[in-house]
Amino acid sequence: MPPTRWGDPAHAGPLPEAVRDLVGLVFELSDTPAAADVAVPAPQLPAELVTGLRAVVGEEHVVLDDASRRQRTRGKSTPDLLRQRAGDLSDAPDVVVRPGDHDDVQAVLDYAQQHRIAVVPFGGGTAVTGGLVAEREGFAGVISLDLGRMRSLLALDPVSSTATLGPGLRGPEAEALLAEHGLMLGHYPQSFEFATIGGFAATRSSGQSSAGYGRFDAMVVGLRVATPQGEARLGGTSPSNASGPDLRELFLGSEGAFGVITEVTVRVRPRPAVKEYEGWQWSSFAAGADAMRTLAQSDLLPTVIRLSDENETAINLARPDAIGGEGSGGCLMIVGYEGTPAAVAAKKAAVTTALTGLGGTPLGAEPGEAWAAGRFNAPYLRDSLLDVGVLVETLETVTFWSNRERLYAAVKSALEEALGEGTMVLCHISHVYATGCSLYFTIAEAGGEDRLERWLKAKAAANDAIVAAGASITHHHAVGTDHRGWLTPEIGEVGVAVLRAVKRELDPAGILNPGVLIP
Amino acid sequence: MPPTRWGDPAHAGPLPEAVRDLVGLVFELSDTPAAADVAVPAPQLPAELVTGLRAVVGEEHVVLDDASRRQRTRGKSTPDLLRQRAGDLSDAPDVVVRPGDHDDVQAVLDYAQQHRIAVVPFGGGTAVTGGLVAEREGFAGVISLDLGRMRSLLALDPVSSTATLGPGLRGPEAEALLAEHGLMLGHYPQSFEFATIGGFAATRSSGQSSAGYGRFDAMVVGLRVATPQGEARLGGTSPSNASGPDLRELFLGSEGAFGVITEVTVRVRPRPAVKEYEGWQWSSFAAGADAMRTLAQSDLLPTVIRLSDENETAINLARPDAIGGEGSGGCLMIVGYEGTPAAVAAKKAAVTTALTGLGGTPLGAEPGEAWAAGRFNAPYLRDSLLDVGVLVETLETVTFWSNRERLYAAVKSALEEALGEGTMVLCHISHVYATGCSLYFTIAEAGGEDRLERWLKAKAAANDAIVAAGASITHHHAVGTDHRGWLTPEIGEVGVAVLRAVKRELDPAGILNPGVLIP
Question: Residue A392's pLDDT band (boundaries 50, 70, 90)?
């Protein structure tokens, strides 16, 4: 992945004319292309430690060249991109180390602990909350531990419907390996094409089919983890049990701070014979959200369900006529069904009856297919918008149903107030539970000279609003360094004390991704 | 609940003639009624500490009489009953303390920490793995912290479908409070009538409707916990999130070792309009288990599904003609549907088609209704059998589907070998997942003078077999003190180190339920 842009260069490109025209209605565009690649700071790690690492994992798997280190500098948040475009590569790792298996990872951790080198696990590099920015102070240097060689299907148990996957497998690679056996995982976050199995587990990722297939953490059956105190194998005995606390849930979401995930055992499923996506129109965001709530509380969720608010419906379609004409105030819902023909037919019939009864208007397959075709493309669009001077960023949160409207209004007004006139705040709900739902905000603003500072101020205001509303600081983007300052109110002092105690126990030298997660 | 017997005296009684006849076919019966109530050791806690506790929670809520302490001595495992029948009340607590709310609990913990008094949280007293037996050494005494006054519906959020319940609410009490609002929880373990909400959470209980409503831990949305280091509130922001590790999962199953659960917020549901239970016949345990697996992996589970092996089918029905005549080798499956008429009809149609296609024979409603009528009665029968000298005990485990047959054979032969001739080992599957299932064994043997020792030896052999087969030491009975010796192979040295680190952090004086859970 090129360092300053999202994804596959073949998919990237200038802003499509249609979108450019639309955005032009709101903002004045200026062409500000990405800064040329800038110099990477020289590696700080003493030469003898580089030599030592080479002895651990092999000469060719310890890499120090500029391109390799630039590619593994920070993640893909808009602040990450802006810093890089501004020529700031100060967070570059000193060295990229590429272990081949669990034992390699364990050996690197042992060496790093002994020599006090910080270790930042690296999967797809798609982090958006500062999870790839190690604190350097007190360390001999920073290793980017690239898990890209660990890309095997390690085990498959078709009777139990489980597969054990290497942490470096990207979404499509994992699906391709499973497809050879007629199976699938079904985890499709927007970062699907580049993000990795280990990263999904370490950050509690959630994909676009979470209604049908669950969050990634709910798909996980077992984990193998290398820690400075040795190996942990969790969940290896059973789907669920009463053998004390569920320690899988302590490593899921631990963002490399407690150990490096080296194997992930997941529930797999037969590949669906049928996939149908369709659109529904709702008179308001509230009406659509209430319908989602009813489905979730009736245990009647389809595979995919997402609802755009009025703003997002208008701008994303870029077709004001599509939903009942301009100014109709409508909201678009995408509903997707996957499975056997019989299961899809039965679910679709029941959901259609329910949604119709709740006041929804079916829009047929076209909006659904259009969404499915472009489901992973938003990050490309973000780069193109940045090229023309428009800053686009996203943030997300989750709360209980009864708090949804309050949270929506609070975050929206915090962002609008912080960023001022000419800001567009869009929102959708794409993850629902019986008791609550996520809210995913997209913010576009014309920006200016101080774009980064203005965004960071707006993001802080949104975070404050989220905490004040009693919601969670993140539904599926993890804590990283960006959210760390807002974690304590969410989990409390006792919760923080527990995280610190586990960290001290497993990583007494504090080498594991220093600075992330733990306040 | 009387101390040496199960449950409500009105439901207890001598062994029904039909069952007595059946058991008589296998064992020689001898009448050995329960020992008369024996003396309780005098309280060890110094008088000034009793006075101190009275100042904390109020005079009337600190109780030292024999009956109160006898009732809170150990739990309801067969070894617990045998020790009590043998006159051994050496594990009686010194004092029963009854806090009225979270602040009371916190104050008791603060006092107990200061004066080094062990605290054993007490709910329904239905523990079967030694969770109510505190190690006394090094403590000034042992408090039984009876949560029976904390029996309120503390909050209800009908929009989000959540309810916050006091930890001392027994199953029927919680359901009655929710029923006033047309809602229910749906957690029906065999101990339902007596066990409490706090206990369900602390032990990761699983109920007979787990296929439809989930394990208790999966119903939990939030927890409030009093620890010696202060209050923890977990899960209060959202159903699920990516804000680091899920710390709810560290307190669920912590058996009072990390804190005392003072509030439990759960997902609730509308009360079902329809409940239908029916029987199905399978040619073998394996055929029925494969059918359960197919349903689970197709996301097509009914509300209740359980399957008895050949032995359990024969003896539980006590009607050899009911399933195709004597020696048919059949296995009985109970399938239950609950919900709205439309949802029940749709699920029943789909499940019926699936089970018929897999070779099952429908037996109609009668076996299902019979099961539902007696679903909580097995522990009463156990007491009556003990009265006539037959020892009945249960143990359970869980594994992945591909390991089911191996585990079944290994545990069965370990028990039969350890207990010798004249032992009946019955088994059923009552909790299923996409990736695996539980196995619940019932063992009956004529016993003799050394019943307790022989059972403990057999239980250890079964535990060894479970560990050797790579399964979990418990699906829903928790670790307590009885399973503690088998936990390390399951969670590993690093897992144990994590539990110890959390314990040190939250309970540095080690006063919380000392001896349970942590190896």
Answer: confident
Could you report the per-residue pLDDT of B17-73, keeping only the tens digit for each?
555 555 555 555 444 445 456 789 999 999 999 999 999 999 999 999 999 999 999
* Residue A473 near residue A483, CB atoms below 8 Å: yes
Residues of A in contact with B502 (CB under 8 A): 245, 498, 501-502
Distance CA A201, CA A206 (A): 10
Of B82, B2, B127, B5, nearest to B384 (Cα)?
B5
Which of A111, A188, A408, A440 is catalytic? The answer is A440
* Pairwise CB contact (< 8 Å): A491 & B436: no
Catalytic residues of B: 440
Specify the pLDDT at position B251: 98
Q: Which of B400, B477, B502 shows the shortest C-beta gap to A238?
A: B400
The amino acid at A429: I
* CB B115 within 8 Å of CB B45: no
Distance CA B284, CA B312 (A): 12
- Say if residues B398 and B440 touch (Cβ distance below 8 Å): no
Residue of A nearest to B265 (CA): A435
Question: Which DSSP string do the residues of B113-130 spell out, in sequence order?
Answer: HHHT-EEEEESSS--SSS
Partners of residue A502 in chain B, C-beta under 8 Å: 245, 498, 501-502
Distance from CA of A104 to the nearest CA of B (A): 19
Q: pLDDT tens across A93-102, in order? A: 999 999 999 9
What's the predicted TM-score (pTM) here? 0.94
Domains and CATH numbers, chain B: 36-146 (3.30.43.10), 153-239+246-270 (3.30.465.10), 274-373 (3.30.70.3450)
Joined tokens for residue B50: 């009793």
CA distances B434 to A219, A269, B54, B297, Å, are 10, 9, 51, 5
Q: CA B216 to CA B207: how far, in whole Å?
A: 7
Q: Which residues pair with B14 in a beta bridge?
A: none
The answer on pLDDT for B118 being more than 60 is: yes
Chain A environment of B495 (Cβ under 8 Å) = 232, 234, 247
Prediction ipTM score: 0.94
Alpha-carbon distance of B476 to A499, in angstroms, equals 27
CA separation for the pair B455, B275 (Å, rounded): 39
> In A, which residues are within 8 Å of B475 by CB distance?
238, 240-242
CB-based contact A127:A476 (threshold 8 Å): no
Is the Cα torsion angle B491, B492, B495, B500 positive or negative in sign?
positive
Q: Residue A32, SS3?
A: coil
Task: Kindly determine whether residue B497 and residue A506, on different chains, have CB atoms separated by under 8 Å.
Answer: yes
Closest Cβ–Cβ partner in A241, A299, A435 for B475: A241
- Decide if A193 contacts A171 (C-beta within 8 A): yes
Please report the DSSP string for A249-288 in residue order.
HHHTT-TTSS-EEEEEEEE-EEPPSEEEEEEEEESSHHHH
Q: Hey, are the CB atoms on B203 and A498 less than 8 Å from each other?
A: no
Binding residue positions of A for FAD: 203-206, 255-261
CB B476 within 8 A of CB B94: no
Nearest CA to CA, how far is A147 from chain B (Å)? Answer: 21
A31: pLDDT strictly greater than 50? no
Q: Which strand (E) or helix (H) includes residue B286?
A: helix B285-297
Beta bridge partners of B279: B334, B364
Q: Which tokens hold the place of A390?
A: 């428009």
Per-residue model confidence (pLDDT) at position B319: 45
Give me the total of CB pairs closer than 8 Å, taking one residue from chain A and one from chain B.
285
